[in-house]
Amino acid sequence: MSLSPKMARLLIFSSLNHSKKYHFQIYPSIQQFMATQIRFMTRHRRIQDRSKKKRIHDLEIATERFKVISKVLSIIETLKNEPEQVIPLNQLEKYRQQINLPKPYKVADFIKKSPKLFEIYKDSRGNLWCGLTDRAEELVQEETILLKKRSEQNAEFVTRLLMMSIDKKLRVDKIAHFRRDFGLPIDFRTNWIHKFPDHFRVLKIDDTVYLQLANWNPNWAITELEKKNNNSKGNLVILPPGELSLPFPMKFPDRYKRVFQYRDQIENFQNMTYLSPYADASGLTAGSKQFDKRAVAIIHEILSFTLEKRLVTDHLTHFRREFVMPQKLMRLFLKHIGIFYVSERGKRYSVFLNKAYNGSDLVEKDPLVVWREKVLRFTDYRGRIKKIINFNNDDNLDDNNLDEGMINGVLYGEESEMDLGDLSEAYKD
Question: With bands split at pLDDT 50, 70 and 90, how would you rate the model's confidence at 247?
């Protein structure tokens, strides 16, 4: 039986309105045919199509925790840049984008939610000013010491980024996207990048500033995965970067039972050799299995450099050409759910290293992570989420889906943050 164009359009429209539930009042064979066609059209991997069984609740909690501390740190850094570390309250509104607080919510209302960190007072003319509390100033001093201690390690990580890049140079503004994730200081662009001339030099081409590798360090051309494997065996062998056969640490969602169905494919992937992120990849064919596995190795390495073993996915996509990675990185993340986890909370997605977490906490915490958790304890967030969005929903999943909550007498919606205990309860199916 053949379908007229009009009938086909009606059937497709009906199926879309029923959100993947195909209720066709036609013969079963045609019903099967149309369902197959619609599944084919929507087969591309999207984060919204992920089932509940692939969701890792603990890492969603970690994402919310990061959102809170990210906004607070942005305000602290803004105040640190002021000569007297104070600023008129109305002027903070122009930093809305850096704080990542959307309209119509006011920065002043957000600040009032953390009175242990920020204080507001009036001058003789009645103008409101914002500054850091004594407790916050002590925390800032602690952070300065920790950043200084981490500086040499960060110089190594930035150098290793350059060593992995195809041209051995990267744009400074792109590296700056990783600044807070790596624990780099606020003066990264203006001061820090000039402190390590033996590792990298600043290069200006037209109006663009780059960091260029100064010296190749063979001791650093070893992946974090290799280091852990060698340390566990009690030896560290320095060899030129080439093919690797180390399996990636994997951890699947507890409720995802289909991992047994794909056991053979997973074993084949883990057993397949791949080029080191520090080896020359010019001979690889884009789209090949070796090409994709090397991309997994690069992303794994970059995430290993970060404090929280997570990054905003947009920041990784900026480096697709420099690190010779596939165009569709999201497809790579979703395909390897045992290695990576993607959270879509907020307006930008984040990707995690699964194995780096035990529940919602990191297995190994850098002192700067411990410091950030200390800062978080001085914030007063009591937002509420009444509804957890289904990943199969085709809506644009951002914080607009969150029910509004009352926080200290102020109504918040899109960017309201949750009490972590409330979030844990909300995620229970």
Answer: very high
- Separation CA 84–CA 78 (nearest Å): 11
Site of tokens 């990267």: 170
- Other CB atoms within a 10 A radius of the CB of residue 54 amount to 17
Tens digit of each residue's pLDDT (9 = 90 or more) over 356-415:
999 999 999 999 999 999 999 898 754 333 343 333 333 333 332 322 222 222 222 333
Phi, psi of 209 (to 5 degrees): -100, 130
CA distance 60 to 420: 10
Q: From CA 45, how far away is CA 2, in angstroms rounded?
A: 30
Comparing CA positions, the residue from 194, 166, 178, 99 lying closest to residue 322 is 166
Q: What is the DSSP letter of 352?
A: E
pTM of this structure: 0.77
CA distance 200 to 221: 15
71: tokens are: 């906004």
Strand ranges in 172-331 using DSSP code E only, listed in sequence order: 200-205, 208-213, 243-244, 274-275, 310-312
Spatial separation of the C-alpha atoms in residues 186 and 282, rounded to whole Å:
35
Burial class of residue 429 (count of CB atoms within 10 Å of its CB; 0-12, 13-18, 19+): exposed
How far is it, in rounded angstroms, from Cα 131 to Cα 91? 13
DSSP state of 130: E
Query: Over the stretch 80-139, which tens digit does the pLDDT of each residue have?
Result: 988 888 999 888 888 888 888 877 778 888 888 889 999 998 888 888 999 999 999 999
Whether 244 contacts 226, CB under 8 Å: yes
